[in-house]
């Protein structure tokens, strides 16, 4: 499998082929099952589905790294649906399938078919997912969820805490993803499910410093968001 960019036809052709590859399907089934299983140990801070710390994202990222964006979409949809049925955290609400499915797709765009899995790439992937899926999409869907079921929850406060959580935690989550994926490179090569020229990145002092700087920036973003709230309320910007 040659390395290709996401704008090239071969990239998407290989992604589609992986959906019919028995070995890839078997790997996807195992990883999806694991992503569902870890939902049993989600840390629910504010129920229902308001503020949760989940560990499924690490399996989503690992799966996306192995089999690409198309199969990752299906895996994300199955993980969300079966996870909600087996380990319910409130009334099932179909639109929540969108952020989880899209997050798997985004991970694949950043991680699949890349020669080197660096900490910076994993951090960029996690930040993009946190911003698009967890902050923007989940904010809209959660507000819809509360309104649809008439749940009496202080939405602005709950959502502010959830946004703060996503901004603060992404550096740690990103480096954990890089560690997990890098540790999996050698066994995955032996299984023949990734290219032999792919390398993981060892965690260096530079990586740790980068994560620390990003963590400080994240705290700054949270403080900035806190001071931005009066402006949003003044201009009736209430989708978050």
State the gist of this model.
The chain has 240 residues and is mostly helical. The chain has seven helices and four strands.
Q: What is the CA-based Rg, rounded? A: 18 Å
Q: Count helical runs.
A: 7
CATH topology term: Arp2/3 complex 21 kDa subunit ARPC3
Q: What spatial order of strands do you see in the largest sheet?
A: 1-2
Query: How many β-strand runs?
Result: 4
Mean pLDDT: 82
Q: Percent helix among the residues?
A: over 70%
* Straight-line N-to-C gap: 42 Å
**What structural class is derived from the secondary structure elements?**
mainly alpha
Structural domain count: 1
Overall CATH architecture: Orthogonal Bundle
User: Which percent band covers the strand fraction?
Assistant: under 5%
Assembly of the depicted chains? single chain
Question: Would you write up a description of this structure?
Answer:
- With 240 residues, the chain is mostly helical.
- The protein has one domain: Arp2/3 complex 21 kDa subunit ARPC3 (Orthogonal Bundle), CATH 1.10.1760.20.
- It is 71% helix and 5% strand.
- The protein has seven helices and four strands, in the order ααββααβααβα.
- The strands form two sheets. Strands 1-2 form a two-stranded antiparallel ribbon. The chain has a two-stranded parallel sheet with strand order 3-4.
- A hairpin with a 4-residue loop joins strand 1 and strand 2.
- Helix 1 crosses helix 3.
- The longest helix is centred in the C-terminal third of the chain and has 37 residues.
- The radius of gyration is 18 Å and the shape is globular.
- The protein starts with 8 loop residues before the first helix and ends in a 6-residue tail after the last helix.
